[in-house]
Amino acid sequence: MPDSPDDNSQDLISGGHLVAKALKAEGVDVIYTLCGGHIIDIYDGCADEGIEVVDVRHEQVAAHAADGYARLTGRPGCAVVTAGPGTTDAVTGVANAFRAESPMLLIGGQGAHSQHKMGSLQDLPHVDMMTPITKFAASVPHTARAADMVSMAFRECFHGAPGPSFLEIPRDVLDAKVPRADARLPAPGHYRASTRAAGDPEAVEQLADLLVRAERPAILLGSQTWTCRATDAAAELVRTLNVPAYMNGAGRGTLPPGDPHHFQLSRRYAFNKADLIIIVGTPFDFRMGYGKRLSADATVVQIDLDYRTVGKNRDIDLGIVGSADLVLAAVTQAASGRLNGGSDKRAAWLEELRTAEHAAAEKRLPQLRSDASPIHPYRLVSEINDFLTEDSIYIGDGGDIVTFSGQVVQPRSPGHWMDPGPLGTLGVGVPFVLAAKQARPDKEVVTLFGDGAFSLTGWDFETLVRYDLPFVGIVGNNSSMNQIRYGQKAKYGEERERLGNTLGDVPYDEFARMLGGHGEEVREPGQIRPALERARESGKPSLVNVWIDPDAYAPGTMNQTMYK
C-alpha cells in the first residue's frame, strides 16, 4: 500500500502530480484524454505544470493523436485513459503506433491495490494485454515510484526503433501523497542517453565502395528518414552521388517535387533494373512484396534502426544498424572523394528512369483530367495535389481512395505526409488533424478521408470545432468499403461483391455543418477546386463531400497480395 501520511507539515506530493512533473521533464506539453475517475489526479498535476489537457470523445482518438503528435514533433506523445474500457478503447491506437515505430506513452488507470482481485470497477489485466504491442508495459507499484516509472517508460520508447510504452497506475497509488524526499523524480535531460548510432564504420566504407562502383543505383527513403530527421543527409547523398530516390511512408517529401533526383512512378522499373538498391528505414513487409520486388541480381543494402528488421524476409548483401541521418552523412563523406563518387556515369541511368516516369504519367493523364461524373478518384486526388502549398501537411485516412492518392499526391516539404503506417488502421484522420494543428499551428492541414474511414472516429470533428482547429477535409464518398469490395468481387463474383461492405449515402457536408464546421457537397469535377478554396478560406474545420465513382479501383488495390 502507498503511504498516506496525515502530517500536513510535511512537503507532500501526490502520484498524479509526480506523473505530471515527469511528463514535463520529457517535454510533453499536451495530453490527449477521455476523463475517468481513476485518472483525474493527473489532470490536477498537469494544470499545475502548464500541460494542456485535450479531451476527446473516444479513447482511440486520444491514442492516435498521441501517435500523430510524436511523428510531427519528434517528442513522445502522451494519452491518458481510464481503466477497463478506457484502456481497451485505446488498444488500436497503441498497436498502430507500435507498427509505425512512433514513440508515445499511454497511461491507463486501474482499480486500487486494496481491491486487487476483488472485482473492482473496470478492473482488467491491462499490462498483460498491452505487453505484445508495446516496447514496455508495467504497473506502478508505489506512489514514490510514479515519476521514476514514467521516465523509465520514455527510455524504452526510444531504445532502437521508437515505439509506444504503457503504464498502469492503480487509483490509490495515483491519489496518495508521499513526502517529496521519498519520491524519485528524475531531472530533465539526465535519465536517458542518446540512442543515435552511426553504424559500423567498416560497413559504411563498404557501402561507399558499392556506390562508387554502381552504374544503376536506386535508394528508397522510408519512414525512418523522417523519424531520424535525416532529410538533409539523404538529400546531400542523392545529389552528391547522383542517385535516384524513391520515398514512401513518412519519408515522402524528403525531396520536393521537381527535384531531378525525385522519382515516384518508376519504382518497379528501377528495382527490376538496378545493380545496387539501398533500402532506408523500411522493412521487407507486404508493401515491399516481402522483398521479392527487388531484382535478384541487384546488390541489396538495408539501413535500419532495428537489427531485427535487417535481412528479415529477404537476404541482403550488407546491413547497417544505425540512425539514418548519421549513416547517410558518413556514406556521403566516404564516397564523395572517390572518382567523383561515381556520379558522372549515372547520367544515362537517371535519364532512363525519367523516361519511364514520363511514360507512366502520360498513361494515367486522361484519368487525372477526367470530366466524368461520378468523379474519377484520380481526378479528385489530382485536384488535391494541385491545391497543396509548401506549408500543407497532407493526411490520408482510408483504403482505396488513399491508395489512389499515394500515386499522385506529393508533399512539398519533409514531415508533411501522414498515413497510418503498416497496420493499415482506418480512423487516424481526425486524431492526426488534432495533433497536427496543435503541434504545428502554423501549418495548413489537408486531409483525405474514405467515407468508411471517417465514420470510425468522425465524431471528434466536434473536438476540432471546440478547440477551433481549422483544416481542409475531403471525403471521397463512394458509399462503400471499396478496397474490400474489389477483393470480394474478384474472389466470389459480382453477385456477392457487396456483401458486408456497402455503406449509406451519407451527406458528410451536412454532418460538418451540424457540428459547427464548414461543409460542401461536390458532384462535378469542375466544382472540386472552388470548394477546396472556400473550405480553406472558411477558417473552420471543414468537410468537402465529394461523390466519386464506386466502380473505379486503385491499381494498388487490384494488386494487393491478400487477393492473390
From TrEMBL:
Domain Thiamine pyrophosphate enzyme TPP-binding positions: 398-546
Lineage summary: Bacteria, Bacillati, Actinomycetota, Actinomycetes, Kitasatosporales
Cofactor(s) the protein needs: Mg(2+); thiamine diphosphate
Highest taxon of source: Bacteria
Listed InterPro entries: DHS-like_NAD/FAD-binding_dom (IPR029035), THDP-binding (IPR029061), Thiamin_PyroP_enz_cen_dom (IPR012000), Thiamin_PyroP_enz_TPP-bd_dom (IPR012001), TPP-bd_CS (IPR000399), TPP_enz (IPR045229), TPP_enzyme_TPP-bd (IPR011766)
The keyword Metal-binding belongs to this UniProt entry's keyword annotation: yes
Any GO CC annotation of this UniProt entry: acetolactate synthase complex
Domain Thiamine pyrophosphate enzyme N-terminal TPP-binding: 14-123
GO biological process assignments: isoleucine biosynthetic process; L-valine biosynthetic process
Key words, A-Z: Metal-binding, Thiamine pyrophosphate
Record PROSITE patterns: TPP_ENZYMES (PS00187)
Record domain Thiamine pyrophosphate enzyme central: where: 204-330
Pfam family, one: TPP_enzyme_C
GO molecular function, one term: magnesium ion binding
SUPFAM superfamilies: DHS-like NAD/FAD-binding domain, Thiamin diphosphate-binding fold (THDP-binding)
Family: Belongs to the TPP enzyme family.
Name of protein: Acetolactate synthase
Presence of the UniProt keyword Membrane in the record: no
